[in-house]
Design a protein that fits this description.
Alpha-Beta Plaits; about 300 residues; about 30% helix; globular; alpha/beta; Rossmann fold; 2 domains; 14 strands; 6-stranded mixed β-sheet
């Protein structure tokens, strides 16, 4: 049986006359990397603030490890907000030691963990520097260390790759995967759908404060497929198919075929093989999460 670390049931949050979170429900399995997606103003940040006990829900239920969410649970969470919250005048080493102790670590434990991560990221010489001396990307690495220093069970990352060059983005991505491999559960919030496809196993899409789509990434992509196939050839080829096939010749080496409801990919492939064509690739085209995101958000905004 799958263990659930976070369970939201009909969660509501109002600000004055605006409903920021509108009866949102989802379950987060332990050990998952979970994408929390949505356009600007969708309600993602309001939802994260409820999960981390920064604010309280006006209605609904939030359970953490099966218990009603309480402030004490925030010690078992690590949250990296999109707007970074580091004290610019403090020295990095002192700042991180202080924040780690706020999360329940002793001074000795905090120093040991901090030394480990700074050595791992090869930034021990940053220890006496002030936050304001660092570039945005460097501050991002420090903020990441702050988030995971106390070994939280649930890690919430809001746009974690913002400001990072490709090398450091890959460094952080590798650490995210390592943390997950070692048992951490992650909520990953970003606008970059290609990162979601690469990292996340499950997603929930929020728009206008409400769930509009949720499930496993693989299942969602399969549910939005359009029976569209690419066929590649190793030599220049002009293809002829029966009229019932919607054929598009992309170039001399590629065609695209859209199948009808009662047509099978095996039958299509057999038609091609019967012509003794030099086929080098045959694959179904699945929509990207970005395409699905645009389609779903556009639909919900049209109501």
């Amino acid at each position: 049986m799958t263990q659930i670390i976070l369970d939201l049931q009909e969660v509501v949050k109002d600000y004055d006359k605006k409903r920021a979170v509108d009866k949102v429900s989802f379950q987060l399995p332990k050990g998952a990397i979970f994408g929390l997606l949505g356009p600007n103003g969708a309600g993602k940040t309001s939802l994260i603030r409820i999960i981390t006990s920064i604010t309280r829900a006006d209605a609904g239920v939030v359970l953490f490890n099966g218990e009603p969410l309480q402030e004490k649970h925030s010690e078992r969470m690590g949250y990296m907000p999109e707007e970074r919250g580091l004290y610019k005048k403090m020295k990095i080493g002192d700042h991180l030691l202080y924040l780690a102790q706020l999360k329940g670590l002793s001074y000795k434990e905090a120093k040991s963990e901090l030394t480990y991560w700074m050595e791992k990221f090869e930034i021990m010489d940053w220890w006496p520097k002030k936050i304001e001396e660092l570039s945005k990307g460097m501050q991002q690495k420090i903020q990441f260390i702050v988030t995971i220093l106390h070994k939280p069970d649930l890690i919430i990352l809001d746009e974690p790759f913002s400001g990072l060059d490709p090398i450091n983005a890959n460094l952080i991505k590798d650490e995210i995967l390592n943390l997950n491999k070692n048992g951490a559960t992650l909520i990953f919030s970003t606008h970059r759908m290609e990162q979601v496809e690469e990292i996340c196993e499950e997603i929930v899409l929020i728009n206008n404060g409400a769930n509009v789509l949720q499930g496993k990434v693989k299942d969602i992509k399969n549910s939005y497929k359009e029976n569209l196939f690419n066929v590649d050839f190793s030599t220049p080829t002009q293809v002829v198919l029966p009229e019932e096939y919607a054929l598009k010749q992309i170039n001399d080496f590629k065609i695209q075929v859209k199948l009808g409801e009662n047509q099978s990919s095996n039958a299509l492939l057999q038609h091609l093989l019967n012509q003794n064509l030099n086929i080098s690739g045959f694959n179904e085209i699945l929509p990207s999460l970005n395409e699905i995101f645009i389609r779903r958000v556009g639909q919900s905004n049209s109501f």
